[in-house]
Protein backbone atom coordinates (compact mmCIF):
# COMPACT_ATOMS: atom_id res chain seq x y z
CA UNK A 1 0.00 0.00 0.00
CA UNK A 2 1.23 3.53 -0.59
CA UNK A 3 2.51 5.39 2.51
CA UNK A 4 0.89 8.62 3.57
CA UNK A 5 -2.18 10.52 2.52
CA UNK A 6 -0.26 12.51 -0.10
CA UNK A 7 0.83 9.31 -1.87
CA UNK A 8 -2.62 7.76 -1.95
CA UNK A 9 -4.03 10.84 -3.71
CA UNK A 10 -1.65 10.13 -6.60
CA UNK A 11 -3.37 6.84 -7.32
CA UNK A 12 -5.63 6.93 -10.37
CA UNK A 13 -7.85 4.41 -12.18
CA UNK A 14 -5.29 4.39 -14.98
CA UNK A 15 -2.29 3.67 -12.77
CA UNK A 16 -4.14 0.97 -10.87
CA UNK A 17 -5.32 -0.58 -14.12
CA UNK A 18 -1.73 -0.61 -15.39
CA UNK A 19 -0.59 -2.39 -12.22
CA UNK A 20 -3.35 -4.94 -12.67
CA UNK A 21 -2.20 -5.60 -16.23
CA UNK A 22 1.35 -6.13 -14.93
CA UNK A 23 0.00 -8.53 -12.31
CA UNK A 24 -1.85 -10.43 -15.02
CA UNK A 25 1.37 -10.74 -17.02
CA UNK A 26 3.22 -11.97 -13.91
CA UNK A 27 0.48 -14.51 -13.31
CA UNK A 28 0.76 -15.80 -16.85
CA UNK A 29 4.52 -16.19 -16.43
CA UNK A 30 4.34 -17.80 -12.97
CA UNK A 31 5.93 -21.25 -12.77
CA UNK A 32 6.11 -22.01 -9.03
CA UNK A 33 3.94 -21.69 -5.97
CA UNK A 34 6.33 -18.98 -4.80
CA UNK A 35 5.67 -17.05 -8.01
CA UNK A 36 1.95 -17.38 -7.39
CA UNK A 37 2.41 -16.22 -3.80
CA UNK A 38 4.20 -13.12 -5.12
CA UNK A 39 1.33 -12.38 -7.49
CA UNK A 40 -1.15 -12.84 -4.66
CA UNK A 41 0.82 -10.39 -2.49
CA UNK A 42 0.79 -7.90 -5.37
CA UNK A 43 -2.97 -8.25 -5.68
CA UNK A 44 -3.32 -7.69 -1.93
CA UNK A 45 -1.35 -4.45 -2.26
CA UNK A 46 -3.37 -3.26 -5.24
CA UNK A 47 -6.64 -4.06 -3.50
CA UNK A 48 -5.52 -2.15 -0.42
CA UNK A 49 -4.55 0.83 -2.61
CA UNK A 50 -7.94 0.73 -4.32
CA UNK A 51 -9.60 0.97 -0.92
CA UNK A 52 -7.28 3.76 0.24
CA UNK A 53 -7.23 5.79 -3.00
CA UNK A 54 -9.36 8.87 -3.49
CA UNK A 55 -10.76 7.69 -6.80
CA UNK A 56 -13.26 9.78 -8.77
CA UNK A 57 -16.89 8.84 -8.36
CA UNK A 58 -19.24 8.04 -11.22
CA UNK A 59 -20.78 11.16 -12.79
CA UNK A 60 -24.28 9.71 -12.68
CA UNK A 61 -26.18 6.61 -11.61
CA UNK A 62 -25.70 4.89 -14.97
CA UNK A 63 -21.92 4.84 -14.71
CA UNK A 64 -19.90 2.19 -12.91
CA UNK A 65 -17.84 3.29 -9.96
CA UNK A 66 -14.12 3.07 -10.96
CA UNK A 67 -13.28 1.41 -7.65
CA UNK A 68 -15.90 -1.28 -8.24
CA UNK A 69 -14.61 -1.97 -11.76
CA UNK A 70 -11.00 -2.27 -10.52
CA UNK A 71 -12.07 -4.48 -7.61
CA UNK A 72 -13.85 -6.75 -10.08
CA UNK A 73 -10.60 -7.08 -12.07
CA UNK A 74 -8.76 -8.04 -8.88
CA UNK A 75 -11.39 -10.70 -8.16
CA UNK A 76 -11.04 -12.18 -11.65
CA UNK A 77 -7.25 -12.36 -11.30
CA UNK A 78 -7.59 -14.08 -7.93
CA UNK A 79 -9.81 -16.72 -9.54
CA UNK A 80 -7.23 -17.26 -12.30
CA UNK A 81 -4.48 -17.49 -9.71
CA UNK A 82 -6.26 -20.21 -7.73
CA UNK A 83 -6.83 -22.22 -10.90
CA UNK A 84 -3.06 -22.26 -11.52
CA UNK A 85 -2.13 -23.62 -8.10
CA UNK A 86 -1.31 -27.28 -7.56
CA UNK A 87 -1.67 -30.12 -8.07
CA UNK A 88 -1.04 -31.07 -4.47
CA UNK A 89 -0.48 -34.30 -2.61
CA UNK A 90 -3.92 -33.75 -1.09
CA UNK A 91 -5.44 -34.29 -4.53
CA UNK A 92 -4.03 -37.84 -4.60
CA UNK A 93 -5.36 -38.47 -1.08
CA UNK A 94 -8.83 -37.29 -2.13
CA UNK A 95 -8.78 -39.71 -5.08
CA UNK A 96 -7.83 -42.59 -2.77
CA UNK A 97 -10.65 -41.72 -0.36
CA UNK A 98 -13.08 -41.83 -3.27
CA UNK A 99 -11.64 -45.18 -4.38
CA UNK A 100 -12.23 -46.60 -0.89
CA UNK A 101 -15.88 -45.54 -1.08
CA UNK A 102 -16.25 -47.07 -4.54
CA UNK A 103 -14.85 -50.42 -3.35
CA UNK A 104 -17.03 -50.51 -0.25
CA UNK A 105 -20.27 -49.20 -1.75
CA UNK A 106 -20.37 -51.14 -5.05
CA UNK A 107 -21.77 -54.61 -5.54
CA UNK A 108 -19.29 -56.43 -7.77
CA UNK A 109 -19.74 -59.53 -9.88
CA UNK A 110 -17.38 -62.48 -9.32
CA UNK A 111 -15.33 -61.23 -12.24
CA UNK A 112 -15.45 -57.68 -10.87
CA UNK A 113 -14.17 -58.80 -7.47
CA UNK A 114 -11.08 -60.23 -9.12
CA UNK A 115 -10.65 -57.08 -11.18
CA UNK A 116 -10.74 -54.70 -8.20
CA UNK A 117 -8.15 -56.84 -6.40
CA UNK A 118 -5.95 -56.67 -9.47
CA UNK A 119 -6.49 -52.89 -9.68
CA UNK A 120 -5.45 -52.33 -6.06
CA UNK A 121 -2.46 -54.68 -6.36
CA UNK A 122 -1.29 -52.89 -9.50
CA UNK A 123 -1.71 -49.56 -7.72
CA UNK A 124 0.32 -50.81 -4.74
CA UNK A 125 3.20 -51.83 -7.03
CA UNK A 126 3.17 -48.52 -8.88
CA UNK A 127 2.83 -46.54 -5.66
CA UNK A 128 5.93 -48.16 -4.18
CA UNK A 129 7.91 -46.99 -7.17
CA UNK A 130 6.83 -43.39 -6.61
CA UNK A 131 7.28 -42.94 -2.86
CA UNK A 132 9.56 -45.88 -2.05
CA UNK A 133 6.92 -46.92 0.49
CA UNK A 134 5.55 -50.42 0.92
CA UNK A 135 1.79 -50.91 0.56
CA UNK A 136 0.61 -54.46 1.25
CA UNK A 137 -2.62 -56.04 0.04
CA UNK A 138 -3.34 -58.71 2.66
CA UNK A 139 -6.50 -60.31 1.33
CA UNK A 140 -9.10 -59.95 -1.37
CA UNK A 141 -12.09 -58.62 0.56
CA UNK A 142 -13.21 -55.00 0.79
CA UNK A 143 -11.63 -54.49 4.22
CA UNK A 144 -8.20 -55.63 3.04
CA UNK A 145 -8.33 -53.50 -0.09
CA UNK A 146 -9.40 -50.31 1.69
CA UNK A 147 -6.77 -50.98 4.40
CA UNK A 148 -4.10 -51.02 1.69
CA UNK A 149 -5.35 -47.67 0.42
CA UNK A 150 -5.26 -46.31 3.98
CA UNK A 151 -1.58 -47.31 4.10
CA UNK A 152 -0.96 -45.34 0.94
CA UNK A 153 -2.76 -42.30 2.36
CA UNK A 154 -0.64 -42.43 5.52
CA UNK A 155 2.54 -42.70 3.44
CA UNK A 156 1.60 -39.64 1.40
CA UNK A 157 0.82 -37.63 4.53
CA UNK A 158 4.12 -38.67 6.13
CA UNK A 159 6.11 -37.67 3.03
CA UNK A 160 5.31 -33.97 3.51
CA UNK A 161 5.48 -33.27 -0.21
CA UNK A 162 6.01 -29.69 -1.37
CA UNK A 163 4.07 -28.51 -4.43
CA UNK A 164 7.20 -26.94 -5.97
CA UNK A 165 10.12 -29.06 -4.80
CA UNK A 166 8.24 -32.34 -5.23
CA UNK A 167 6.13 -31.42 -8.25
CA UNK A 168 7.32 -34.43 -10.27
CA UNK A 169 6.60 -36.85 -7.44
CA UNK A 170 3.13 -35.36 -6.94
CA UNK A 171 2.42 -35.65 -10.66
CA UNK A 172 3.44 -39.33 -10.53
CA UNK A 173 1.17 -39.87 -7.53
CA UNK A 174 -1.75 -38.29 -9.37
CA UNK A 175 -1.06 -40.58 -12.32
CA UNK A 176 -1.04 -43.80 -10.26
CA UNK A 177 -4.11 -42.83 -8.23
CA UNK A 178 -5.96 -41.95 -11.44
CA UNK A 179 -4.90 -45.34 -12.77
CA UNK A 180 -6.53 -46.97 -9.75
CA UNK A 181 -9.73 -45.05 -10.45
CA UNK A 182 -9.67 -46.25 -14.06
CA UNK A 183 -9.18 -49.83 -12.92
CA UNK A 184 -12.17 -49.63 -10.59
CA UNK A 185 -14.28 -47.99 -13.30
CA UNK A 186 -13.43 -50.88 -15.60
CA UNK A 187 -14.32 -53.58 -13.05
CA UNK A 188 -17.59 -55.42 -13.64
CA UNK A 189 -20.57 -54.56 -11.44
CA UNK A 190 -23.69 -56.59 -10.88
CA UNK A 191 -25.82 -53.84 -12.36
CA UNK A 192 -23.94 -54.16 -15.65
CA UNK A 193 -24.85 -57.75 -16.41
CA UNK A 194 -28.39 -57.51 -17.76
CA UNK A 195 -27.56 -54.36 -19.70
CA UNK A 196 -24.58 -56.02 -21.35
CA UNK A 197 -26.63 -59.00 -22.42
CA UNK A 198 -29.25 -56.78 -24.04
CA UNK A 199 -26.67 -54.66 -25.80
CA UNK A 200 -24.85 -57.76 -27.02
CA UNK A 201 -28.03 -59.07 -28.61
CA UNK A 202 -28.56 -55.76 -30.42
CA UNK A 203 -25.06 -55.66 -31.88
CA UNK A 204 -23.68 -52.87 -29.71
CA UNK A 205 -20.34 -54.63 -29.22
CA UNK A 206 -19.91 -55.77 -32.83
CA UNK A 207 -17.73 -52.75 -33.63
CA UNK A 208 -15.05 -54.07 -31.26
CA UNK A 209 -14.09 -56.96 -33.53
CA UNK A 210 -12.82 -60.23 -32.06
CA UNK A 211 -10.91 -59.03 -29.00
CA UNK A 212 -12.53 -59.11 -25.56
CA UNK A 213 -11.53 -56.13 -23.45
CA UNK A 214 -13.45 -55.56 -20.22
CA UNK A 215 -15.39 -53.46 -19.79
CA UNK A 216 -15.89 -52.81 -23.51
CA UNK A 217 -18.70 -50.24 -23.17
CA UNK A 218 -16.61 -47.10 -23.38
CA UNK A 219 -14.50 -48.44 -26.25
CA UNK A 220 -17.68 -49.34 -28.14
CA UNK A 221 -19.18 -45.91 -27.52
CA UNK A 222 -16.05 -44.19 -28.85
CA UNK A 223 -16.08 -46.37 -31.95
CA UNK A 224 -19.78 -45.73 -32.59
CA UNK A 225 -19.18 -42.00 -32.20
CA UNK A 226 -16.30 -42.20 -34.68
CA UNK A 227 -18.56 -44.00 -37.17
CA UNK A 228 -21.48 -41.62 -36.61
CA UNK A 229 -23.76 -44.37 -35.27
CA UNK A 230 -26.23 -42.15 -33.44
CA UNK A 231 -28.72 -45.01 -33.05
CA UNK A 232 -26.23 -47.17 -31.15
CA UNK A 233 -25.23 -44.35 -28.82
CA UNK A 234 -28.93 -43.69 -28.24
CA UNK A 235 -29.38 -47.39 -27.41
CA UNK A 236 -26.55 -47.20 -24.87
CA UNK A 237 -27.92 -43.95 -23.45
CA UNK A 238 -31.27 -45.60 -22.79
CA UNK A 239 -29.69 -48.76 -21.37
CA UNK A 240 -26.84 -47.73 -19.06
CA UNK A 241 -27.57 -47.09 -15.41
CA UNK A 242 -24.15 -45.52 -14.91
CA UNK A 243 -24.17 -41.74 -14.51
CA UNK A 244 -20.71 -41.61 -16.07
CA UNK A 245 -21.84 -43.48 -19.19
CA UNK A 246 -24.98 -41.37 -19.54
CA UNK A 247 -22.83 -38.23 -19.31
CA UNK A 248 -20.45 -39.59 -21.94
CA UNK A 249 -23.38 -40.33 -24.28
CA UNK A 250 -24.68 -36.77 -23.90
CA UNK A 251 -21.19 -35.41 -24.60
CA UNK A 252 -20.97 -37.65 -27.68
CA UNK A 253 -24.31 -36.33 -28.94
CA UNK A 254 -23.01 -32.80 -28.39
CA UNK A 255 -19.85 -33.45 -30.39
CA UNK A 256 -21.71 -35.22 -33.21
CA UNK A 257 -24.16 -32.33 -33.79
CA UNK A 258 -26.63 -34.75 -35.37
CA UNK A 259 -30.34 -33.85 -35.11
CA UNK A 260 -31.12 -37.58 -35.27
CA UNK A 261 -30.15 -37.73 -31.59
CA UNK A 262 -32.91 -35.33 -30.56
CA UNK A 263 -35.42 -38.02 -29.57
CA UNK A 264 -32.80 -39.65 -27.35
CA UNK A 265 -31.87 -36.50 -25.41
CA UNK A 266 -35.30 -34.87 -25.28
CA UNK A 267 -36.44 -36.78 -22.15
CA UNK A 268 -33.35 -35.60 -20.27
CA UNK A 269 -33.84 -32.05 -21.56
CA UNK A 270 -37.41 -32.14 -20.25
CA UNK A 271 -35.88 -32.91 -16.84
CA UNK A 272 -33.82 -29.74 -17.36
CA UNK A 273 -30.55 -31.61 -17.74
CA UNK A 274 -28.14 -28.88 -18.81
CA UNK A 275 -25.93 -31.27 -20.80
CA UNK A 276 -28.90 -32.48 -22.82
CA UNK A 277 -30.01 -28.89 -23.48
CA UNK A 278 -26.49 -28.02 -24.63
CA UNK A 279 -26.58 -31.02 -27.00
CA UNK A 280 -29.88 -29.85 -28.49
CA UNK A 281 -28.32 -26.47 -29.18
CA UNK A 282 -25.24 -27.96 -30.83
CA UNK A 283 -27.33 -30.21 -33.07
CA UNK A 284 -29.50 -27.23 -34.10
CA UNK A 285 -32.71 -29.12 -33.39
CA UNK A 286 -35.55 -26.73 -34.17
CA UNK A 287 -38.09 -29.12 -32.64
CA UNK A 288 -36.61 -28.19 -29.27
CA UNK A 289 -37.26 -24.46 -29.58
CA UNK A 290 -40.74 -24.47 -28.01
CA UNK A 291 -39.52 -26.40 -24.95
CA UNK A 292 -36.45 -24.19 -24.54
CA UNK A 293 -38.46 -20.99 -24.89
CA UNK A 294 -40.58 -22.17 -21.96
CA UNK A 295 -37.41 -22.61 -19.90
CA UNK A 296 -36.25 -19.09 -20.77
CA UNK A 297 -38.59 -17.77 -18.06
CA UNK A 298 -37.05 -19.91 -15.31
CA UNK A 299 -35.80 -16.90 -13.35
CA UNK A 300 -35.27 -19.04 -10.25
CA UNK A 301 -32.43 -20.91 -12.04
CA UNK A 302 -30.09 -18.44 -13.78
CA UNK A 303 -27.56 -21.18 -14.57
CA UNK A 304 -30.24 -23.07 -16.51
CA UNK A 305 -31.27 -19.89 -18.31
CA UNK A 306 -27.73 -19.25 -19.54
CA UNK A 307 -27.51 -22.74 -21.06
CA UNK A 308 -30.98 -22.41 -22.58
CA UNK A 309 -30.21 -18.99 -24.07
CA UNK A 310 -27.04 -20.22 -25.75
CA UNK A 311 -28.84 -23.28 -27.13
CA UNK A 312 -31.59 -21.07 -28.57
CA UNK A 313 -28.98 -18.86 -30.17
CA UNK A 314 -27.20 -21.84 -31.72
CA UNK A 315 -30.44 -23.30 -33.09
CA UNK A 316 -31.01 -19.95 -34.77
CA UNK A 317 -34.80 -19.97 -34.85
CA UNK A 318 -36.31 -16.50 -35.06
CA UNK A 319 -39.08 -17.74 -32.75
CA UNK A 320 -36.57 -17.24 -29.93
CA UNK A 321 -35.75 -13.61 -30.73
CA UNK A 322 -38.55 -11.97 -28.76
CA UNK A 323 -38.31 -14.26 -25.69
CA UNK A 324 -34.56 -13.59 -25.54
CA UNK A 325 -35.05 -9.85 -26.06
CA UNK A 326 -37.54 -9.84 -23.18
CA UNK A 327 -34.76 -11.10 -20.90
CA UNK A 328 -32.61 -8.06 -21.63
CA UNK A 329 -34.61 -6.30 -18.91
CA UNK A 330 -34.52 -9.03 -16.26
CA UNK A 331 -33.12 -8.30 -12.79
CA UNK A 332 -30.12 -10.66 -12.89
CA UNK A 333 -27.21 -9.01 -14.73
CA UNK A 334 -25.65 -12.36 -15.70
CA UNK A 335 -28.92 -13.43 -17.29
CA UNK A 336 -29.18 -10.13 -19.17
CA UNK A 337 -25.63 -10.59 -20.45
CA UNK A 338 -26.35 -14.19 -21.54
CA UNK A 339 -29.52 -13.08 -23.34
CA UNK A 340 -27.60 -10.41 -25.24
CA UNK A 341 -24.92 -12.85 -26.36
CA UNK A 342 -27.54 -15.40 -27.40
CA UNK A 343 -29.16 -12.78 -29.60
CA UNK A 344 -25.78 -12.13 -31.18
CA UNK A 345 -25.33 -15.84 -31.93
CA UNK A 346 -28.87 -16.06 -33.30
CA UNK A 347 -28.19 -13.15 -35.64
CA UNK A 348 -31.75 -11.85 -36.14
CA UNK A 349 -31.58 -8.20 -37.21
CA UNK A 350 -34.75 -7.47 -35.21
CA UNK A 351 -32.55 -7.64 -32.12
CA UNK A 352 -30.47 -4.60 -33.17
CA UNK A 353 -32.79 -2.01 -31.59
CA UNK A 354 -33.18 -3.71 -28.18
CA UNK A 355 -29.45 -4.44 -28.05
CA UNK A 356 -28.71 -0.80 -28.90
CA UNK A 357 -30.97 0.25 -26.02
CA UNK A 358 -29.09 -2.05 -23.64
CA UNK A 359 -25.78 -0.61 -24.77
CA UNK A 360 -27.06 2.88 -24.09
CA UNK A 361 -29.01 2.38 -20.88
CA UNK A 362 -27.99 -0.72 -18.91
CA UNK A 363 -26.33 0.08 -15.59
CA UNK A 364 -23.82 -2.79 -15.74
CA UNK A 365 -20.88 -2.47 -18.11
CA UNK A 366 -20.41 -6.22 -18.56
CA UNK A 367 -24.00 -6.39 -19.87
CA UNK A 368 -23.37 -3.43 -22.14
CA UNK A 369 -20.20 -5.09 -23.45
CA UNK A 370 -22.22 -8.24 -24.22
CA UNK A 371 -24.73 -6.12 -26.14
CA UNK A 372 -21.90 -4.51 -28.13
CA UNK A 373 -20.44 -7.95 -28.84
CA UNK A 374 -23.84 -9.17 -30.01
CA UNK A 375 -24.22 -6.22 -32.35
CA UNK A 376 -20.83 -7.08 -33.86
CA UNK A 377 -21.96 -10.66 -34.40
CA UNK A 378 -25.15 -9.55 -36.16
CA UNK A 379 -22.79 -7.56 -38.34
CA UNK A 380 -25.11 -5.37 -40.38
CA UNK A 381 -24.00 -1.81 -41.02
CA UNK A 382 -26.67 -0.51 -38.63
CA UNK A 383 -25.59 -2.91 -35.89
CA UNK A 384 -21.90 -2.09 -36.31
CA UNK A 385 -22.55 1.64 -36.33
CA UNK A 386 -24.57 1.33 -33.12
CA UNK A 387 -21.66 -0.41 -31.41
CA UNK A 388 -18.98 1.85 -32.88
CA UNK A 389 -20.49 4.94 -31.25
CA UNK A 390 -18.93 3.91 -27.93
CA UNK A 391 -15.21 4.11 -28.77
CA UNK A 392 -14.88 6.76 -26.01
CA UNK A 393 -16.93 4.79 -23.49
CA UNK A 394 -16.22 4.95 -19.76
CA UNK A 395 -15.70 1.17 -19.65
CA UNK A 396 -12.64 -0.51 -21.15
CA UNK A 397 -14.57 -3.62 -22.19
CA UNK A 398 -17.31 -1.67 -23.95
CA UNK A 399 -14.73 0.58 -25.55
CA UNK A 400 -12.87 -2.44 -26.96
CA UNK A 401 -16.01 -3.89 -28.57
CA UNK A 402 -16.76 -0.49 -30.07
CA UNK A 403 -13.23 -0.22 -31.49
CA UNK A 404 -13.59 -3.63 -33.15
CA UNK A 405 -16.91 -2.59 -34.67
CA UNK A 406 -15.35 0.64 -35.96
CA UNK A 407 -12.41 -1.27 -37.44
CA UNK A 408 -14.81 -3.56 -39.28
CA UNK A 409 -16.61 -0.54 -40.71
CA UNK A 410 -13.25 0.80 -41.86
CA UNK A 411 -13.39 3.82 -39.55
CA UNK A 412 -10.05 5.13 -38.34
CA UNK A 413 -11.28 5.75 -34.81
CA UNK A 414 -9.15 6.13 -31.72
CA UNK A 415 -10.56 6.55 -28.21
CA UNK A 416 -10.00 9.92 -26.59
CA UNK A 417 -7.23 9.97 -24.00
CA UNK A 418 -8.49 9.69 -20.46
CA UNK A 419 -7.69 12.78 -18.44
UniProtKB/TrEMBL annotation:
<dbReference type="InterPro" id="IPR004155">
    <property type="entry name" value="PBS_lyase_HEAT"/>
</dbReference>
<feature type="compositionally biased region" description="Acidic residues">
    <location>
        <begin position="45"/>
        <end position="68"/>
    </location>
</feature>
<dbReference type="Pfam" id="PF13646">
    <property type="entry name" value="HEAT_2"/>
</dbReference>
<protein>
    <submittedName>
        <fullName>HEAT repeat domain-containing protein</fullName>
    </submittedName>
</protein>
<dbReference type="GO" id="GO:0016491">
    <property type="term" value="F:oxidoreductase activity"/>
</dbReference>
<dbReference type="InterPro" id="IPR011989">
    <property type="entry name" value="ARM-like"/>
</dbReference>
<feature type="region of interest" description="Disordered">
    <location>
        <begin position="45"/>
        <end position="85"/>
    </location>
</feature>
<dbReference type="InterPro" id="IPR016024">
    <property type="entry name" value="ARM-type_fold"/>
</dbReference>
Amino acid sequence: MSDGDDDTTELSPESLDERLNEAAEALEAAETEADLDDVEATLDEIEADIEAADLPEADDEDEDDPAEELTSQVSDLRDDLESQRGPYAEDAIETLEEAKSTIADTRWTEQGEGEIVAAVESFADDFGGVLDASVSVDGDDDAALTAALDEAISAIEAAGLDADEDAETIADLIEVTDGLTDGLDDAQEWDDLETREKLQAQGFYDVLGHYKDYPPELSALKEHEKRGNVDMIALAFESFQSGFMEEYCIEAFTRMNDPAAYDAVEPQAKRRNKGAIKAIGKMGAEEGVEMLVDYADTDSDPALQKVVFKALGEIGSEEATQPLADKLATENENVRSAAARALGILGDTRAVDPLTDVLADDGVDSVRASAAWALRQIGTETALEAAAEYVDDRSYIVQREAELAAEFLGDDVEPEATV
